[in-house]
Amino acid sequence: MSETQGVTATAPKGPDAKIAVRLENLSKTYPGTTVPAVDHLSLDIADGEVFTLLGPSGCGKTTTLRMVAGLEVPDTGEIYFGEREIVITERGLRVPPEKRNIGMVFQSYAIWPHMTVEQNVAFPLKTRHIGRKEIKDRVANVLELVGMPGMEKRPGPLLSGGQQQRVALARALVTEPRVLLLDEPFSNLDAKLREQMRAELKHLQKRLN
Hints:
alpha+beta; Rossmann fold; 5-stranded antiparallel sheet; two-stranded parallel sheet; 5 helices
């Protein structure tokens, strides 16, 4: 398989590593095309591991993340979160996105401009019908975690690129997801801020584990 047709990789894991995510023979070809976006991808990701998909534009990285998140339906293959079956294409099994307990940060951040920081971060909690006080507490805690305490009332349009990235990360973390997916989260930042956010993300991963 050529480098531009798909992504194939296997996560390094020790004998006692607990598998958090497993993909088996995952494939996806979009209508109107003949070249698979993802071609029989299999990989294991250990619990607590930071795993990176590398490859040129168009090689299937985003498609892979979207299939894990439930935003794309694979043509073939299986997805597991630990022992839990998420997608088994042969049996027609597909757990809907809202029941997968994942958080995702999109490349564009997807910050709603008509909402404040607090409203953006709280949105996924409100769709779960969580109580108002718990929402307020969770939003405050996660904004502290990403380095934006006290900024709940700031409007979306007044946020810098780095702040938008932090808000998107806070929104992905506020539901306490089992799996966190980041789709090129630093590509829209300048080089200095990109390095800073990479370091902060590593620090955050250590704190959450």
